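Lab notebook, design round three. We kept the backbone fixed and only want residue identities now. Task for the bench partner: fill in a sequence for the structure below.
Input structure tokens:
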């Protein structure tokens, strides 16, 4: 009986972990799901090189266009004194994204 309870608990915990795993849905995964190829971000499929903004802008056009999309976000993550850096200073491919502004500021922004 005691073993059964322990086993049930272990299964419940494992189940929760699996569910949490599916919410770990990083930017690259979401792109791949939309039909974006690895090579669209990784030039010639070389994953050892950093992904530069030119790669992202091939589809996302320009900082100006992005700034329009986030015009109602304050401060605008795509139009500010920090300049037009590589997107990956904030948007990560296969891990939790960050906010480069946080080195100096405390803004309530969440990077997808
Ligand atoms: C081959 C085209 C393509 C490339 C390359 C690409 N994207 Fe996207 N991205 C899309 C499409 C299509 C969408 C969905 C429509 C939209 O939100 O604009 C999207 C959505 C997004 C979103 C919002 C939705 C989400 O899932 O978070 C972010 C943020 C994003 N892209 C960032 C990037 C960054 C950063 C790069 C480069 C590292 C990049 N994209 C490269 C096509 C692309
Ligand atoms: C300083 C950090 C930072 C940089 C650099 C940055 N972003 Fe973002 N981005 C954000 C944040 C934060 C959001 C979410 C804004 C919000 O709250 O809706 C966002 C949202 C987006 C979205 C979703 C916009 C929508 O439809 O609502 C796209 C697409 C995107 N970024 C693409 C890019 C691309 C491509 C680059 C590089 C050219 C880039 N970003 C550079 C922080 C950044
Ligand atoms: C939306 C752009 C994007 C797409 C699509 C993408 N990646 Fe990445 N990838 C990145 C970025 C950005 C990095 C740099 C590290 C990070 O941000 O996680 C990276 C890093 C990597 C690395 C280096 C190890 C690591 O995790 O840091 C490997 C391996 C990799 N990607 C494999 C792939 C494969 C395989 C695919 C296709 C299934 C793919 N990537 C699709 C953006 C992308
Ligand atoms: C290396 C440090 C540093 C980084 C990184 C940085 N800032 Fe700043 N920022 C400053 C300083 C210094 C000032 C001027 C002093 C002040 O007003 O706080 C400032 C002022 C500002 C202001 C006007 C004052 C305010 O707080 O309302 C805004 C808005 C702002 N930054 C947004 C951003 C955004 C958005 C990012 C990220 C994309 C960013 N900053 C990244 C240092 C930084």
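Proposed sequence:
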């Amino acid at each position: 009986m005691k073993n059964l309870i322990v086993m049930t608990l272990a299964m419940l915990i494992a189940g929760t972990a699996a569910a949490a795993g599916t919410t770990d849905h990083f930017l690259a995964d979401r792109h791949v799901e939309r039909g974006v190829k690895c090579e669209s971000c990784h030039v010639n499929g070389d994953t050892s090189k950093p992904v530069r903004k030119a790669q992202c802008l091939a589809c996302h056009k320009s900082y100006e266009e992005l700034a329009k999309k986030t015009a109602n976000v304050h401060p605008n993550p795509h139009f500010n004194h920090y300049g037009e850096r590589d997107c990956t200073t904030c948007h990560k491919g296969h891990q939790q994204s960050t906010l480069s502004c946080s080195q100096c500021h405390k803004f309530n922004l969440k990077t997808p």
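Keep this in mind before ordering anything: The helical segments are 2-23, 27-33, 38-41, 53-60, 63-69.
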